[in-house]
Amino acid sequence: MLSTLPSLDFFKTSYELRVAQLNEEREKGIKIVGTFCLYVPDEIIFAAGADRIVLCGGRADTIPVAEQSLPRNICPLIKSSFGAVVNACCGGTLACPHVPLVDVVVAEATCDGKKKMYEILPDYLPTYVLDLPQKPGSPEALDYFLSEIKKFGKFMENLTGNVVSNDALRKEIRLANETKRLLHRLFGLRRRDPPPIRGSDVLRVMQKQFFLSPGQFRQGVSQLCDELEHTTPDARAGPRIMISGCPMAAGNTKIVDIIEQKGGVIVVEESCTGTRSFWDCVDEHKDPWEALAERYLEIPCACMTPNDQRIARIVDLAKQYNVQGVVYYTLQFCHAYNIERLRVQKALKKEKIPLLAIESDYGDSDKEQIGIRIDAFLEMIA
Ligand code: BJ8
Known about the structure:
- It is a single chain.
- By secondary structure, the protein is α/β, with parallel strands linked by helices.
- 49% of the residues lie in helices and 11% in strands.
- It has 14 helices and 8 strands.
- The protein has helices at 6-27, 42-47, 63-66, 76-89, 112-120, 139-160, 166-189, 199-208, 214-229, 254-261, 288-297, 308-320, 335-350, 367-381; strands at 32-35, 51-54, 104-108, 127-130, 240-245, 265-270, 325-331, 355-360.
- The chain has a 4-stranded parallel beta sheet with strand order 2-1-3-4, sandwiched between helices. A 4-stranded parallel beta sheet has the order 6-5-7-8, sandwiched between helices.
- The longest helix is centred in the middle third of the chain and has 24 residues, at 166-189.
- It binds Double cubane cluster.
- Double cubane cluster binds at residues 37-39, 75, 77-78, 110-111, 113-114, 246-247, 272, 299, 301, 303, 331, 334, 336-337.
């Protein structure tokens, strides 16, 4: 298990190293971009000579300050992220240490809650919004998104003073694909029965993906895979579980921890802190801008309509990972993922794969009740 592996120490100590690196970069005038979503192509940011960190909030303690401005009935990820920015920019005691490192936020037009939050964000941080087509399968969508990412490329050039050349972009695409292939290697090991690593450990690694530099992250994952390939796992405790749904930003491990406490064995996560972040590579043989536009529009996020590719992906993953049950995890008030659950459930039912829907926030008050439901679900599918 990861907790006994040296790579765990690497992921723990890498945090301080990364903060020092970002501070040094800022002193040298390198721009740091903050993002909130997988749809913003990192490759363009890096090709412009900038760096990036993801600012999605997974902590409950920054929510109260957000609720002074935002409605309470929006998803906790939005409130937590916004609260962290407000705290940092107004000298709050719960200031997110990452926000002051950022020169600009590059946001994206996904769900309604995020879009409207991004309209308030410029009161605190310079903000650029990347637009997205809502029907990625329509013939016009690709051209539109291509023009949007090219516009974003110009924005990055103006911000950094560097040209985003095709060669630089190709290099970043190659490196990002390398990261994706390493994550495939890691997730491939989880197909074993029993898997050599706990889901909670993988989640913590995946959360680091959004903060560490890509080079640091690759080094850690590569070491982890080397170690796991020579690890004899403990005997499997319980049923093989897939988690599917909303992302679990750093600080949020609630459901995963409960599932494992109850004896479930998490083998794969269909989420932005799981397969959605790395499953598809960018085509290295095409024009780099077109290849990026194609790949990024393939991200199966519930903000898109229709989202058939996500439904097919979930069924495919459930089979590939020999899953006995799916825990469909949504954040409270996330309409996109909550509503899409109906289609996911129907598709899984056809394959006779049971699903348990859990909608939760970042608080502790529902932990016991969730534990009881997970217990009953695991008993049913064992
Ligand atoms: S690509 S999942 S990171 S949008 S959970 S804020 S959708 S109300 S985070 Fe997301 Fe990009 Fe999609 Fe991934 Fe809105 Fe839902 Fe909250 Fe969400």
